[in-house]
Amino acid sequence: MKKIISIFMILCLFTSVFAFDKTVVEDGLTEFIDGLADSAPAVSTMNNVWADGYVGQLIGIPPHFGVGASAGVAKMDVTGVKKAAKELGISAVDKLSDDFVLPVASVQAVIGGLFLPFDISGSYMTLNEPLSIGEDALQYKFDCFNVKLRLPILKQNVVLPNLSIGVGYSKVSGYVLANLADSTTFLKTSFASEVYSADVQLSKSVIFLTPYVGARLLASKSDNSWEYAFDVAGVVSEKGNGTYKTADDKMDISYQVFAGTSFNILILKINANAAYDIKTKVWSAGLGLAVQL
């Protein structure tokens, strides 16, 4: 009898050590991918910004075009995925700050219209970062392509600034993957969004500076998902998955403001910029270097 009681107590203790709340995990992951439906589209449009509200037409003296690269940071709320990771015992995510700051890098190009007064720009932003925190592994990936067409409303002269309106399209995708060391326990969240934007930008070049401000409206559709597995020494095993998808007849709407200043040295432009999404409270800041004619 004592032996049976001892075995029962050991099993109870063992089970309590490795027990976890499935609801906490699934609610946390659902919260995270729901938030990504807003935050991923918000970040996707924040880096394809040229200081000049309008760069001019390609055919001219000189022809008007530019190429450049930038690096910066963007904030992302990871509270939901941290809740799930803590319950699963994955310290690589649990130890992150709630407002996780992502490093981002992008390349951009802009070219003036051939005959009509417009310019078109494109950018590619990527992030593929493996991390090791303790013995656990964390990897996050973010890819974004953005293209934008701008039409001048006002062209800069001695008095007037550049004022332009623009429309854009972005496609963004990525994932967050975390594994528990020496275990099949993991969590993964994946996201993919298409983003349509409309913006207005005002700029004015004064001596060697070009300050600018603007506002942007975003409409996006997202298809996000999560999955996880919990398995400790083969004793407790649980799996789950879930999705977030924008309804076919709806779009997720958000609003942004942005501002910055370009420091101009002949054809070299150093662009310091910042943006803020009013709905998601996502912000970004960056520094770019470009050659522009």
Strand content: over 45%
User: What is the topology, as strand order, of the major beta sheet?
Assistant: 1-2-3-4-5-6-7-9-10-11
Spans of at least 5 consecutive residues whose pLDDT stays below 50 are 2-17
Query: Sheet with the most strands?
Result: 10 strands, antiparallel, barrel
Mean pLDDT: 81
How far apart the termini lie comes to: 89 Å
Number of strands: 11
- Fraction of helical residues: 10-25%
* SSE arrangement, N to C: HHEHHEEEEEEEEEE
Overall 3D geometry? elongated
Rg computed from alpha carbons, rounded to a whole number of angstroms: 24 Å
Number of helical segments with 4 or more residues: 4
Structural class: alpha+beta
Description:
By secondary structure, the chain is α+β, with helices and mostly antiparallel strands. Helix content is 18%, strand content 56%. The chain has 4 helices and 11 strands. It has helices at 2-18, 22-44, 79-88, 91-94; strands spanning 65-77, 99-112, 119-133, 136-154, 162-179, 186-203, 209-232, 236-245, 252-265, 268-277, 283-292. A hairpin with a 2-residue loop joins β9 and β10 (268-277). α2 packs antiparallel against α3 (79-88). The longest helix is centred in the N-terminal third of the chain and has 23 residues, at 22-44.
List the helices and strands and how they pair.
Layout: H1 2-18, H2 22-44, E1 65-77, H3 79-88, H4 91-94, E2 99-112, E3 119-133, E4 136-154, E5 162-179, E6 186-203, E7 209-232, E8 236-245, E9 252-265, E10 268-277, E11 283-292
